Prior knowledge:
By secondary structure, this protein is α/β, with parallel strands linked by helices.
Amino acid sequence: MTTQQLIEQIQLKKSFLCIGLDVDLTKIPHFLLELEDPIFEFNKAIIDATHDLCVSYKPNTAFYEAYGIKGWQSLQKTINYINKNYPDIFTIADAKRGDIGNTSTMYAKAFFEDLNFDSVTVAPYMGKDSVEPFLAFENKHTIMLALTSNEGAFDFQTKNCEGTELYKTVIETSKSWKNADNLMYVVGATKAEYFTEIRKIIPNSFLLVPGVGAQGGSLQEVCKYGMSENIGLLINSSRAIIYASNRNDFAQKAREEALKMQIEMEDILKNR
Length: 272
């Protein structure tokens, strides 16, 4: 999917919502556990109930890898289902990969060619030769960790290094990498005050923003400081939507929570 196609979907759906498919078997409705593939059946129901309200789905691969080969098969079935039935949805493999040379190339092949995700998250600590192999894939996007929403982000990311914060150096440096137009960035919603500074460096890049909802981030604040001319935001919500209920009505309750966010987003877009 191209960036322009993503923008068109945002305009069409009046939404920039990304739903995280982080499936924990201890939290899903118990009746699903009787099925052959409870993870996929849970995802399928959530996707069918919310696909018209969001523009993106983001499975966190750790929630699938934890269940071994069966979990990976559930992930493959999930992405195949989205690509077949809702091909206009932007898909994100939240894998946070990052290694040099051929290893990164193989990671990229796994997610872009075998699973056919539109994008994958990566950690940039090892520098450009750990990220550029992902950027080499046409019409695929690499979403680089920039300023995350966790408490430990302050251990390194905001440290002053030679007169500027490390996260700013990381973002600025990444602009010079080959095929940098394919880069997006992870910026946590709990750090809304940083968005103004980030937009000075990358005014038009898309930002994947976790932390709205369960982690306490404010959608209004993120949009106030982080929205670009082309929207430039994908706001992720996981637990608040997919675990809105653990009963038979879980998919309907997920839809209700997603609709609340979509309505708020539509209002923001109308008044921007």
